[in-house]
Amino acid sequence: MAKVIKSLLLAGMLAALAAAGGCGWFGGGGSTVSDAFDTPAQVLASEGETLYREGNYDRSAEVFQSLKDRFPYSRFALLADLRVGDAYFKARRYEEAILAYEDFIRLHPKNEGVPYAIYQMGMVHFEQMHTPDRDPTNARKAMQTLQRLVKQYPGSEWSVRAAPRLQEAIRRQAAHDLTVGKFYFKTKRYRAASGRFTRVLTQYPDVGLYNEAMDYLRRAQEQIALLPPKEREGEDIDRRDLTTPVPGIETPDVLLGPDDRPF
Fold first, then answer.
1. pLDDT at 16 over 70
2. Which of 21, 45, 129, 135 is the Cys-Cys partner for 29 at CB 3.0 to 4.6 Å?
3. Distance in angstroms (rounded) separating the CA atoms of residues 192 and 194
4. Can you tell me the distance from the alpha carbon of 213 to that of 210, in angstroms, rounded to the nearest whole number?
5. What does the alpha-carbon distance between residue 201 and residue 195 come to, in Å, rounded to a whole number?
6. Distance from chain centroid for Cα 170
7. What angle do CA 129, 110, 151 make, to 5 degrees?
8. How open is the CA angle 143-215-178, to the nearest 5 degrees?
9. How many Cβ atoms sit within 10 Å of the Cβ of residue 19?
10. Nearest alpha-carbon partner for 152 in 122, 128, 107
């Protein structure tokens, strides 16, 4: 995340550390907190930032958390609310990072740092995405989070940064459906395969898999047409085909609702 650190967000952070009033992200000169009260908070903020820059992310997170706990009304507490999430993220403590960013958004819903927090949440999931034959949960969550960012903050710098990651998350989700569809096709479960290929075509038409999915769908339909009339005119695809484990292909640990299934 070195490039992100050099972004405008970090510039705002460092401005907050360098000057008591500083940037609009972390409060202005109108703060009611006394300088005497803020001084130890500033020391902790500076220490946490130094540890972060040195790559000591676990310790940095501890220092920023301590700042939040000890000086919740300090002008530097807002910095800590966001930076603790960054430190957890770099330390690969992903669940804690998500919670930290969610706390920041909940506590400061109107703050200019919210788009960054949403972006970072998306990147937490993006960093954990797997290959198409493995559990697609993080690809789905990355896609949903980055779509939320683009929808709520279309003009944000972070929406621009999110665009290629969002496209990759969508493609990874589509590739999973295609992989499962191929398995069903190989095992002669043509109706289930058709459902997967149709899903790729209708939900993910612009990720570069359209032609392959269309070819497999055509072949699956040809096989269905060869079935005896009674089988060919059977009921629609069993919803269980979209949730049951597929040998050799990972699925989520929990089953989701009909509108939120990753497959």
1. no
2. 21
3. 5
4. 5
5. 10
6. 12
7. 45
8. 30
9. 11
10. 122
Q: Cα(182)–Cα(180) distance, rounded to whole angstroms?
A: 5
> What is the pTM for the complete model shown?
0.73
**Residue 14 corresponds to which tokens in the numbers above?**
């460092």
Residue 124 CA: distances (Å) to CA of 1, 117, 152: 11, 11, 19
Residues paired with residue 246 on neighbouring β-strands, in sequence order? 249
Q: Where are the alpha helices (DSSP H) in the chain?
A: 2-5, 8-18, 35-53, 57-70, 77-90, 94-107, 114-127, 137-152, 157-186, 190-203, 210-225, 229-232
Q: Is the dihedral of CA 245, 246, 252, 257 positive or negative?
A: negative
* Model pLDDT, residue 250: 55
Closest to 74 in 3D by CA, of 105, 40, 109: 40
Which one, of 64, 82, 106, 103, lies nearest residue 27 by Cα? 82
Structure-block tokens of residue 156: 């944000």
Q: Which residue has the higher pLDDT, 243 or 259?
A: 243
Is residue 72 predicted with pLDDT exceeding 60? Answer: yes
Q: Are 164 and 134 in contact (CB under 8 A)?
A: no
